[in-house]
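With this grant's support, we have settled on a layout for protein records. A representative record follows, to show the layout.
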Amino acid sequence: METTSIQKAAKLFGVVFLLVGVSGFIPWHDGYYDQLLDFSGQGAEQLGFLGVNILEVVVHLLYGLAGFALAKTASAARAYFLGGGAIYLVVWLYGLLIDLNSSANIIGVNDAANWVHFTLGVVMLGVGLTLGRQAEPAGSA
């Protein structure tokens, strides 16, 4: 059975999310680990500008594993992108609506992370809609 473009894309996104997740444990500045465990405001700064905490880092690792697990079939890979994109847009809205310096910020996001979540949401939905359509059997609607 041939691997479709959307399955390949799910594996690629899986690799990227795993790399992002692992890099979340690398200290990028002084005091990083204390901030990585902060669940009540802007957390540590991954790559020096993206707000994260341990919860978000673990979610990135899980998204990476899900990319590989759901790349087994085209329909599962499509669900990975559509569901993941929708979730990232919800996280983006959450980040816009809360006070980033309050206890409502349980994932440690900042403005930069919010816009990365928006971009990921749009890209993942776009991949799911475009490559997912290409993977549909002929004659399906």
Remarks:
- The mean pLDDT is 85.
- Residues 74-97 form the longest helix (24 residues).
- Strands lie at 44-46, 50-52.
- Residues 26 and 46 are 8 Å apart (CA to CA).
